Amino acid sequence: MRLSLRRWRPRHLLLSWLAYWIALVAVRLGDAILALRRVTALPEGRGSFSISYDDAFRMTVVDSGRTVWSGSASLGELALWVAGPPLVLFVLWLLARPRRGDATTAAPTREALGEPPFEGVPRAGPLDRNETRVGRHEP
């Protein structure tokens, strides 16, 4: 099966966003998470970390008075990292979707699906005198 935005449903879009955010956390904060895990496992008073915000978000991880990880990001940078690529993907997905009323939105033919051609519904024979049609009342 070909991977095409045209075939994606909303759930595919949401799953791609989730995968992006997981990858973003792993790539951008992977080292910080490992440093935090190492520092929080140390005996009390040996390691610490701090998170602050003044003109940017800042995080510092310290082990025995030595900084082992430090990072910062402005609010705008965080917003672009978190929302930018998913919004671009959403716009591309909207542009790739077929428009209502296009000929491409018609259901595929039975032959295209690999099914035998439709031969019609067998017709019933004439009704007996004692039978009635659905929705019709006879006296």
Characterise this structure:
It is a single chain. By secondary structure, the chain is an alpha+beta fold. It has a domain at 5-97. It is built from two helices and three strands. The protein has a three-stranded antiparallel β-sheet. A hairpin with a 2-residue loop joins strand 2 (57-63) and strand 3. It is elongated, with a radius of gyration of 31 Å. The two termini are 60 Å apart.
Short description:
With 139 residues, this protein is α+β, with helices and mostly antiparallel strands.
Largest sheet at a glance?
Answer: 3 strands, antiparallel
The DSSP helix count reads 2
Radius of gyration, CA atoms, in whole angstroms: 31 Å
Poorly predicted spans: none
Instruction: Classify the beta-strand content into a percent band.
Output: 15-25%
Number of strands: 3
Q: How many angstroms separate the termini?
A: 60 Å
Average pLDDT rating: 82
Assembly type of the chains comes to single chain
Structural classification: alpha+beta
Topology:
Elements: H1 10-40, E1 47-53, E2 57-63, E3 66-73, H2 75-96
Antiparallel strand pairs: 1-2, 2-3
Helix pairs in contact: 1-2
What are the main properties of this structure?
139 residues, alpha+beta, three-stranded antiparallel sheet, 2 helices
